[in-house]
Amino acid sequence: MQFTFQSNHDHGSCIQGALAKAEKICVERAQRFTKIRRLVLELIWQSHKPLGAYELLPAIKEAGFNSAPPTVYRALEFLQEHGLVHRISSLNAFIGCSHPGHQCSCCFLICDQCQLAVEVESPVLANAIGGLSKEMGFVVEREHLELVGKCRQCSASGIHSGASGPEQAKQRHE
User: With a threshold of 0.90, does the pTM exceed it?
Assistant: First the structure.
């Protein structure tokens, strides 16, 4: 499997695609895709960097919604329950699901320099996890694999963690 980190692309198409898929899933499941849920999903998809609930609050307040943390957490919980976002445990943050509507064996590649995160789905990885768990007699209930390192651009820059912050890394991606 080959995948290239892409930070220079049209996030607008990502956002529109995610919103269209979310609307379809909500209709199929007879769920309400409320304005706040829509806004939270849109904010999550504005970049491919995981966002924490508190990072969403200013934009939610600016849009005229109740910006209390429970409002955001309820929307995130709904989006997560319906497979529209993933929680990145190591960062206590959320990222849009690139395969909404179905269970997938996915892995997250997270750049510890610029915070870019990419969801990848690999049948080879899924088979390896399935084989190992079967061999061990372990029943997998949830899969969540996070690999932390450097994306191609940050790795090529030769800067190591701690040597520069996310702002300097962001400039390399622009």
Answer: no
